[in-house]
Amino acid sequence: MIRYIYFDVANTLLYKPDLFVSIDRVLKEYSINIDASTLMHTHKLLSEIIQFPDKTSREFYQEFNYQYLIALGVNPKDEILNDIFKACSYLSWEAFSDVHHLNEIGLPMGIISNWDETIYAKLGEHINVKFDNIIGSKEFGTAKPSLRIYEHAIDKSGVNAEEILYIGDSIRLDYIPAKKLGIKALIVDRTPGSANTNVNRISSLEELTNYI
């Protein structure tokens, strides 16, 4: 029986809708044409491998985008990297359209996220949901996939690990560490035509009612 639900934030509850539009626009300026699904899929795969810091920087994104362009089969020239950074800096976060379904759950809910101290304001700005616990990695001092942050979340919930459901978008950061501690876990994957693997997935937060 599920008595508590935790959520990741970035690309689980919030996303940047203009990210891939901006990347595509820059690439087209250099006569590079890559379909949107490849841009998204490659970015997702690379994000599973490279550890994002709590607070990103120009240096981090220059290196990430360098690896991203190589994975796309593009020569990562400095001018392309600089233009992508300028186009993608300070893009707005928005809530996914299915986030409003969280108000239908009727269970205590919390957050476990690799994010800095701005997480409180960001959630309050975009999501009209009451979260009983908000655990950000910067404030806690340890980032996912460390089991310490999940152990802390279990303690804060007041219930047993097997009574917790955790929803995230990353197998490495969310699914694997949660399952190691006995927490039930789901990956939310809104990409059409996603592969059928050995990971429990949902395509929308609307499906959560089937698991509680």
What does this structure look like?
With 212 residues, the chain is an alpha/beta fold. It has 8 helices and 8 strands, in the order ββααααββαβααβαββ. It has helices spanning 19-29, 36-49, 58-71, 78-88, 119-126, 137-140, 147-157, 171-180; strands spanning 4-7, 14-15, 94-95, 109-113, 133-136, 164-168, 184-188, 201-202. A 6-stranded parallel β-sheet has the order 5-4-1-6-7-8. Helix 1 runs antiparallel to helix 4 and helix 3 (58-71) packs across helix 4. The mean pLDDT is 94.
Kindly report how far apart the N and C termini lie.
7 Å
What is the assembly state of the chains in this entry? single chain
N-to-C SSE string, H for helix and E for strand: EEHHHHEEHEHHEHEE
Number of helices: 8
**Into which percent range does the helicity of residues fall?**
25-40%
Which shape, going by the Cα principal axes?
globular
Q: What is the mean pLDDT?
A: 94
Number of strands: 8
List the topology elements.
Elements: E1 4-7, E2 14-15, H1 19-29, H2 36-49, H3 58-71, H4 78-88, E3 94-95, E4 109-113, H5 119-126, E5 133-136, H6 137-140, H7 147-157, E6 164-168, H8 171-180, E7 184-188, E8 201-202
Parallel strand pairs: 1-4, 1-6, 4-5, 6-7, 7-8
Antiparallel strand pairs: 2-3
Helix pairs in contact: 1-4, 3-4
Task: Supply database-style keywords.
212 residues, 6-stranded parallel β-sheet, globular
Short synopsis of the structure:
With 212 residues, the chain is of the alpha/beta class. 39% of the residues lie in helices and 14% in strands.
